[in-house]
Design goal:
The complex is a heterodimer.
Chain A lengths: L9 E4 L2 H11 L12 H11 L6 E5 L4 E4 H11 L6 H11 L7 H5 L5 E7 L2 H4 L14 H16 L27 H4 L1 E4 L11 H4 L8 E14 L6 H14 L10 E5 L1 H9 L4 H12 L1 E2 H6 L13 E2 L8 E5 L7 E7 L5 E4 L3
Parallel strand pairs in A: 4-5, 7-10
Antiparallel strand pairs in A: 2-3, 4-6, 6-11, 6-12, 7-11, 8-9
Chain B lengths: L6 E4 L23 E6 L5 H15 L4 E6 L8 H6 L7 E4 L4
Parallel strand pairs in B: 2-3, 2-4
Classes of the chains: A alpha+beta, B alpha/beta.
């Protein structure tokens, strides 16, 4: 039970409807209405995580911000979260504030990067999260509001006020000057893995050192995604070949580093199992399928960045291990989704409590 | 008739925590000094810096110019700047952003 008082300024409003308008006037929303954060609601969130209001979630050196549990809780209430979602929000926030994540890139880039996260383990079902049809889309409260809580925290706590072309009407500094932005900046790329239907394919968090009984969240920064149609491919190798062709076509091959997130729906995952492939086999095949020399890419008209030598071998990532394969989606449709990397490291952390 | 319920709501924002800091020591002249020009790889950045270098070379008797590149999307440790030759410089001008 929280013992300390909340420190945030408080405002009296006449009704919930007035409160919603008040947050618009203050410039504290993402453009959508928010749930008014009352003291009672915020304390319930802190209690759910067993944290005092002044507990430090992390720091953001570039903007000189100290992120407290109280502020993240307020933004989580506003996003429409339930208290039991709060540990997941906190786990994401802790990781994006890890210097290895390089938060300043998605927080400020003209490229319009979004935060992506993969939820694994028992907490998926405890929170009633969706890992089947429309997993990346609307319809599930936890899927939709956890990422929104992170975005609202980016805007309100981390100073990533969106805008470009026009200045903030309230005169605040506009630090998120994305050229176009992207819809993933509303609720994040919320991926929840289907760990049940294909037990031979290890969940992401298990591949990254956790047990199936642990709940964990993996975070990444992404510039958006590409939908890959793989309906007629009737083997794991054919699917890998199709994916590789699309990845090469994305023009983002690298000599080292980088990462790649692939969301594989059941229709395609079934062929991996049928052919006896592991996720590691699949990522190796995809990796090999994307390997090209810089010279061959240049011959196809791709501008080479960083002065790569003509015989330099490039691929979608520097290593197959940096291709992360996630199983999710509805039963019908061979639609694989590729999340484009946007700087920083892919990090995984256990969700507690 | 429904009576609206008044409620008390909370400020979701936080402000920067500014610690006391100090500016780097200023040089009194560029005469005899080594100038570093580091571009972040963005369009026209190297050309702009070269022009700046030319202007300063005309105005001052520079000891030399060190040229380098860096990624403004990454935080760099001082050791990385040293590898790029920054420690040889008395003053560095760089491009940042897009």
């Amino acid at each position: 039970m929280t013992t300390k008082a909340l420190q945030s300024a408080q405002y009296d409003v006449d009704s919930v409807a007035d409160a919603i308008e008040f947050y618009y006037e203050k410039g504290w929303t993402d453009g959508l209405p928010v749930v008014p954060p009352t003291e009672e609601k915020v304390l319930a969130f802190l209690d759910a995580a067993g944290l005092e209001p002044d507990a430090v979630v992390g720091t953001y050196e570039t903007r000189k911000r100290i992120v407290t549990a109280e502020k993240v809780a307020i933004n989580s209430v506003m996003a429409g979260c339930l208290p039991e979602y709060f540990p997941v929000v906190l786990t994401i926030m802790e990781q994006i504030l890890d210097t290895r994540f390089n938060l300043h890139v998605p927080n400020s880039t003209t490229g319009g990067a979004a935060i992506g996260f993969i939820v694994n383990g028992p907490i998926r079902d405890r929170l009633g999260m969706n890992y089947r049809g429309n997993v990346l889309g609307p319809g599930n409260r936890a899927n939709s509001t956890i990422g929104r809580a992170v975005r609202l925290s980016q805007i309100n706590v981390l100073g990533s006020l969106p805008g470009a072309g026009t200045e903030d009407p309230l005169g605040r500094p506009v630090f998120d000057r994305a050229t176009v932005g992207q819809p993933g900046k509303y609720a994040g790329y919320h991926i929840v893995e289907n760990e049940d239907d294909f037990p031979s394919l290890l969940p992401v968090h298990v591949e990254r050192g956790f047990s199936r009984e642990q709940s964990a969240v993996t975070v990444f920064s992404t510039g958006g995604h590409v939908q890959i149609s793989a309906h007629s491919e009737d083997s794991a190798q054919k699917i890998a070949d199709t994916v590789a062709r699309h990845l090469v076509g994305s023009g983002r091959l690298v000599a080292s580093g980088g990462f790649c997130i692939l969301v594989i729906p059941p229709e395609n995952a079934g062929y991996l199992v049928k052919d006896g492939w592991s996720k590691a086999d699949f990522r190796q095949a995809v990796f090999e399928g994307t390997r090209r020399t810089a010279e061959s890419l240049a011959a196809q008209g791709w501008p080479l960045r960083g002065g790569a030598a003509s015989d330099q071998t490039m691929a979608v990532t520097g290593s197959p291990d940096d291709i992360h394969v996630v199983l999710a989606g509805g039963p019908a449709g061979g639609f694989i989704h590729y999340m484009l990397p946007y700087g920083g490291a892919v990090l995984t952390k256990e969700v507690t409590p | 008739m429904v009576v609206a319920e008044r409620l008390r709501v909370l400020d979701p924002t936080s402000e920067p925590v500014i610690e006391a800091g100090s500016r780097a020591a200023r040089v009194d002249t560029l005469d005899g000094k080594v100038l570093g020009i580091f571009n972040n790889g963005k369009l026209n950045a190297p050309q702009l810096l070269e022009m700046v270098g030319e202007v300063l070379s005309e105005r001052y008797n520079l000891k030399g110019i060190v040229r380098g590149t860096y990624s403004s999307s990454q935080r760099h440790a001082w050791s990385e700047w040293q590898e790029k030759g920054a420690s040889e410089c008395d003053i560095v001008i760089l491009t940042h952003g897009d």
